[in-house]
């Protein structure tokens, strides 16, 4: 089955784009959501996170102390690598399951903020990047998450620059509030359906 990797830096609008593909009937795997799920359900992973980042990593009710972990990993690249090495294998396994369950679909989408950085693009047949100017991306995330511009910048600094990703990606959607997003998604959907028919 044709697999499309969908990415974009923080606040680019990749989740928004993914939702449009879903409306067109395409199964989408959200790596971020899956990471959130396994980090509170996988007992071995939970233990490993506590060992690495302290007991404060979880609240008494079992939910993840996201602020505590974010403060550690987005201030120290080595700590972020440690967290990625713990979480990503479980996310990769979940994607394999989704793929197995989506046999009837013409193609599937794997949405991930760090598709290129994590190497998961290698499991995709094509890659699609959503782009937007940095100022717009920052403003969107500040509005959506209520975090400061500095916090957004720290995360952006841990991601491969958008310009580099644009060179690696096969397809692009420009989400700059000037060009319309839905027609761009529909055009790519037709292209992917044709490609899926040739596989
Ligand atoms: C550190 C955590 C707890 C912070 O949680 P928080 O609720 O503040 O942020 P959230 O998860 O909603 O992420 C917001 C954005 O931050 C950026 N971001 C998140 N994880 C990463 C990462 N590993 N590397 C670079 N950027 C990241 C992305 O642009 C993401 O969309 C959380 O991001 C996390 O557990 N990250 C590790 C899991 C992971 O790699 N997720 C990303 C896709 S698999
Ligand atoms: N074209 C647009 N017009 C207006 N608002 C938009 C547009 N695209 C995205 N947004 C808004 O900007 C915010 C960021 O978009 P979205 O969550 O899709 O980005 P993302 O790339 O998935 O971000 P992250 O990497 O932080 O998870 C959301 O609140 C979304 O509703």
TrEMBL record:
Name the SUPFAM superfamilies on file: P-loop containing nucleoside triphosphate hydrolases
The positions annotated for binding ATP are: 11-16
Give UniProt keywords alphabetically: ATP-binding, Coenzyme A biosynthesis, Cytoplasm, Kinase, Nucleotide-binding, Transferase
Q: What terms describe the molecular function in GO for this protein?
A: kinase activity
Give the signal peptide as a residue range, or say none if absent: none
**What is its pathway?**
Cofactor biosynthesis; coenzyme A biosynthesis; CoA from (R)-pantothenate: step 5/5
Concerning InterPro entries, the annotation shows: Depp_CoAkinase (IPR001977), P-loop_NTPase (IPR027417)
Where mainly found?
Answer: cytoplasm
- Reported EC number(s) for this entry are 2.7.1.24
Query: Superkingdom, according to UniProt?
Result: Bacteria
Query: What chemistry does it catalyse, as a reaction equation?
Result: 3'-dephospho-CoA + ATP = ADP + CoA + H(+)
Compartments reported by the entry? Cytoplasm
Of which family is this protein a member?
Belongs to the CoaE family.
| Role summary | Catalyzes the phosphorylation of the 3'-hydroxyl group of dephosphocoenzyme A to form coenzyme A.
Q: What is this protein called?
A: Dephospho-CoA kinase
Biological source species: Mucilaginibacter dorajii
